[in-house]
Amino acid sequence: MGLIKTTGTFTGASVNLPGLTGVNTSQIRWGQPATPGGALSGYDFLDYEMEANLGGREFPIGEFTHHNYPIFLSGQSQFWVYLAIRVHFENGNFNHDFTVNLRHDETPNQGSHPNDTVQWEAIHEPETVFIDGNKYSVEITGFRKPGQKESKPNFDVPEGSQDTAYLYARFQREAPQTS
Q1: What pLDDT tens digit does each residue of the chain (179 aa) get?
Q2: 137, exposed or middle or buried, with CB in 10 Å at 0-12, 13-18, 19+?
Q3: What NCBIfam families is this protein classified in (predicted)?
Q4: Residue 112 class from Cβ within 10 Å (0-12 exposed, 13-18 middle, 19+ buried)?
């Protein structure tokens, strides 16, 4: 099939977050640092290039980093961050755009699960794309950290650190319609 190049842009959040910066860029941040000079929490999406796999096997479409630092959010503990992804199919010279909704769970950094969690919205129909006259369903399958063998719908990051996972997708050819 050839190369696929992806780019990602964070288009906003579901609530008015204090300190929100980076809307319409590949790096979005939010919150007020809990300590003077502290870092903001947020996400990065690193553009990615790979050989397309159209045979139904998962493959990475981008590198996603979650930055989790001590911040104040004025009572916002769960919200959505929207990521617009453009996939450019080099051989066919066309683009396919879709949006991934990411649910962010900001924890109070204590208790049985003190880590913040990011989860992509799995409840949606697969996208459809036509490649070389064939119809394919495209679905985001989840996050996968280096060394993991299966994609997961979420991953979490301990307070005061950052972690990176790849966002994976699958192209599955649909059977041609018979007359």
Answers
A1: 578 899 999 999 999 999 999 999 999 999 999 999 999 999 999 998 988 777 778 888 899 999 999 898 877 789 999 999 998 887 777 888 888 899 998 876 666 666 888 887 765 566 777 777 878 788 888 899 988 899 998 888 988 899 999 998 888 888 765 55
A2: middle
A3: choice_anch_K (NF038131)
A4: exposed
Extended beta strands in the chain, E state: 3-13, 27-30, 32-33, 41-46, 48-51, 59-68, 71-72, 78-89, 94-105, 116-120, 127-131, 134-144, 154-157, 161-173
Q: Are 67 and 106 in contact (CB under 8 A)?
A: no
